[in-house]
């Protein structure tokens, strides 16, 4: 299927690694020119160079911290200038995944921690959408995909659940506001996902448990119904479709990309 992304201009936040980088790779393979937004060098430049060489498309890095209004504004302006036009597609993925660290318990949840988490994953997403939406509205077309997570549907991480539920609510509100202008806004909930951080994590757990790495991976994969540790590239395939003109019928909706709901979820 031709996703009709050739020549589109995309901005992927959190694009220097993990799910964000995988999404940028798929979009570029589908013909889009892509700006990766992240905070730090040299990972940003290295990722942009790698994806440009692999896909043959224009892939650039723009520096910015999504908790800063000024930095987001400057980064988006830089991306527009270097890509040669307004952004058609925004993928918000600039947030630390909750599954790689033990969640804080009630006594450990401070106001500073809570506000920092929401400033990054909720307000940060708003800042980026706020900058690209006028250009999309002027052209009558755009796609915004917010990467959230299955903590929105399960317990175990109070702040993780709250920030992901907030992203879902944000998405539906933006979809209703922007949908009449040809801009579709959706949210994707990855579950436990294989990225470049997974292999060291598996090795450490295997060493601590005195078992083979394959046993740890099988244990991780057992948390979903397909018994497969979902790869970042598989999440990226879902996102790429939502970025496509072919996804017109999907707006304000939530797509789970976690291999089937974990058995511990309580609705």
Radius of gyration equals 18 Å
Note the beta-strand portion: 15-25%
Specify the biggest β-sheet: 7 strands, parallel
Sequence of secondary-structure elements: EHEHEHEHEHEEHHEHE
Number of helices: 8
Average pLDDT level:
94
Category from helices, strands and their pairing: alpha/beta
- Our measurement of the CA-to-CA distance between the termini, rounded to an integer number of angstroms, reads 35 Å
The geometry reads as globular
- Spans of at least 5 consecutive residues with low confidence: none
The amount of helix comes to 40-55%
Topology (elements, then pairings):
Layout: E1 9-13, H1 18-29, E2 33-38, H2 43-55, E3 59-63, H3 69-83, E4 89-92, H4 111-139, E5 142-147, H5 158-178, E6 183-190, E7 193-194, H6 198-209, H7 213-221, E8 230-231, H8 232-242, E9 254-257
Helix pairs in contact: 1-2, 1-8, 3-4, 4-5, 6-7
List keywords for this structure.
9 strands, globular, 267 residues, alpha/beta, two-stranded parallel sheet, seven-stranded parallel sheet
What does the model show?
Helices cover 46% and strands 16% of the residues. The protein is of the alpha/beta class and 267 residues long. It has a seven-stranded parallel β-sheet, with helices on both faces. Helix 1 crosses helix 8 (232-242). The longest helix has 29 residues, at 111-139.
């Amino acid at each position: 299927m031709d996703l009709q992304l050739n020549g589109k201009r995309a901005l992927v936040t959190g694009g220097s690694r993990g799910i964000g980088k995988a999404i940028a790779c798929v979009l570029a393979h589908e013909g889009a020119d892509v700006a990766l937004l992240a905070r730090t060098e040299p990972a940003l430049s290295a990722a942009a160079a790698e994806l440009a060489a692999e896909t043959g498309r224009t892939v650039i890095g723009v520096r910015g911290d999504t908790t800063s209004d000024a930095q987001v504004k400057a980064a988006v302006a830089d991306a527009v200038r270097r890509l040669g036009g307004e952004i058609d597609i925004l993928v918000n993925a600039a947030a630390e995944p909750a599954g790689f660290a033990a969640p804080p318990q009630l006594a450990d949840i401070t106001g500073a921690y809570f506000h920092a988490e929401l400033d990054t994953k909720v307000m940060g997403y708003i800042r980026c959408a706020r900058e690209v939406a006028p250009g999309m509205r002027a052209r009558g077309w755009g796609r915004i995909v917010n990467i959230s997570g299955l903590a929105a549907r399960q317990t175990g991480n109070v702040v993780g659940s709250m920030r992901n539920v907030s992203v879902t609510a944000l998405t539906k509100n933006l979809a209703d506001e922007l949908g009449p202008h040809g801009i579709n806004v959706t949210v994707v909930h990855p579950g436990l996902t294989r990225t470049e951080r997974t292999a060291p994590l598996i090795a450490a757990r295997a060493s601590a448990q005195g078992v083979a790495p394959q046993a740890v991976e099988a244990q991780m994969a057992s948390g979903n119904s397909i018994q497969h540790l979902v790869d970042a590239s598989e999440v990226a395939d879902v996102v790429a479709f939502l970025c496509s003109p072919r996804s017109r019928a999907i707006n304000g909706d939530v797509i789970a990309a976690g291999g089937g709901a974990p058995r511990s979820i309580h609705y």
